[in-house]
Model the fold of this input.
Amino acid sequence: MRKLGLIIRREYLAKVRNKSFVIMTFLSPILLVGMVVLIAYLTKINDNEKRIVVVLNESGHFQQEFLPQPGLAFVMMRDISIEEAKDSTLSLGYYGLLHLEDRGPLDKVVESAYFFTREAPSTQVLEHIERILERELRAYRLEELGMSPQTYANLGKGYEINTATFAGERSGKGINEFKALVGGGFGYLIMMFIIIYGGFVMRSVIEEKTSRIIEIIISSVKPFQLMLGKIIGTSLAGVTQFLIWIISASLLMVLALIFLDLDPAILLERPGTPGMDPAFPVDGLPADATTSLLIEEFLKIPMGLMIGFFLIYFVLGYLIYSSIYAAIGAAVDNETDTQQFIFPIILPLMLAIYVGFFSVFSNPHGPIAVGFSIFPLTSPIVMMMRLPGGVGEGGVPIWELVLSIFLLVVTFLGIVYLAAKIYRVGILMYGKKPTYRELFKWLKY
Amino acid sequence: MDPILSIREVSKSFGNFKALDGVSLEVPTHSIYGLLGPNGAGKTTLIRIINQIAFPDQGQVYLGGEPLKPEHVAQIGYLPEERGLYKNMKVGEQALYLAQLKGLSRADAHRELNYWFEKLEIGDWWNRKVQELSKGMAQKIQFITTVLHRPRLLIFDEPFSGFDPINAALIKDQILELRNEGASIIFSTHRMESVEELCEYIALIHRSHKILEGRLSSIKKAYRSNEFRVRWMPSKQEDGLNGMEALAPVVRSAFHSDEGIWDFVVSLEDANQGDFMNYLTRRGVLSSFQEVVPSVNDIFIQTVQKQEAHA
Done:
């Protein structure tokens, strides 16, 4: 145990004193915050651009409808030919030209309307103009039918069934997705940690091999102790790095937002900001109600339970994968030879994230979600996505959770045993590029 | 006295390859024991078994009479042939770490390190990183980390590689001193002249088998060919070899004469020595008369070749 402690200490110090590690640790939050601030700033500038659209209205309709918008203004023109209008739009440097011909009734006018721009028009501008025309067209047709807009609104109102769980809690669409997202955050964290720090473990093993110190070390300690100490020391360094990242990034972010007077919401509003959108458009419920329901649901996520199980899945999952990384590091002589072995490790992780997101989103307790949350190489990630629904009734059945953890522990013992064997043989093999067949043979030495 | 290390019928296979086949050895306490053999003979595997890096499929290893167990690593110092240090670590810190892994307390390790750093005159390297050191300097550090915990059994695999002659001599003296202080030493090398110089016992391993073991002087005795090299100035050159050859056969191919001094090799049974010496002293001036002792190198090559012929 004393030796294990010594090894952990050395590995930890070697890692955190490493120059590139220090730079990574302190530079990344600055880069990250810088990026966010830059995006927010650019978005702000982008929105300040004013687009002016010329409206050549030859019809008797549309007198008051084209109102200025943030970023968009309209200039009305009359009594000139379309050619002249095009020319002056171009020469004035305006964004586009909307041509409404005089075709009599409004529906005919709208049908024959044309929007000219220099290049393909921006979706935002186009949608805005379409909306104006559509609104008028609809009002016109309603009038023809003799129906009041109020009646129409009642007619077109969607229907949403009332939903509740048997326990009597209100539920709604988007809740599954939202919960899976929260759990997915935990799962994603596990995956990133495995990939980054598993790689560190591997490189540190390769370093010991290439510097030829390995035989000296293992004449004092058991190879398994060395491997375990390496994994633990490296992960402690990783935890340190993560903590520094989280703390400094949030501090910097707050400071940046205060001093640059940027609205953080600007980032969330953008369509295409990853991870934010799918959960929010909840049809049928007014936006406020949805938000409050989501907040309610978020508060209902059993955080204590989540964190408890996160620790279990994190530790076991990380140990399984990092011991495989250690075995790979031991089997090869340099990093370029690791490629063929790395891919099969990344594969289940990727599968867990993607399959997890797709299947857990739509049905957290469907057969795929259940299967992947029990299969040990994917369970740390997928089970974390299912857990926000709670355990027991309405959530993950207890037997599934028990089976999943049981299998994970069994796999952990098995994999660490096998990895330790490969490691033990591999660290003393120099100058060979091993094949899978050879690795298999090593298991029997 | 009990042998410090005894290896009994040890076998070890890697897949289909048998690295050691029923090897038994006894390393006497307070001796320097040369472990010799061609490349790939199984020496490294044997050394790794002693260090508990590898484990035998069959057979036992005893250290000081006890079956080898994990706690014994603190009593063994091992300088492997493939050796190195952590490049990014400071010299002092690294030596402390390695010593603590061998079971020394931090304070003890510190004290021993100061002693050795002073002894080998490397005191001011403490805070330098290994990558800044020359190869010879790194080798010195490695030697120190091997002996720091005052092990009963020291195993040196090619200890002199990487040293210039001055430092090699320094290390050789240290090895002898350690032996005199009571350590037992296993010494594996291909440099036969250092075996000749240092080892009291040798074992020869060839193709997974031990083919020779014993006290170096006895082995040499067994391998002696009863040949003597003579330098002699006959008073009458014209007598030629005939008179002498009546007493003992002269190896004519090795004969040459230079300014009246003859230099030749003669095969001589012990019983005939007196007569032959009388002949030489009466008929000339004898300047040297020495038994031709087989070198370790000769023994090595001869034994291995004989083994190959059998196989």
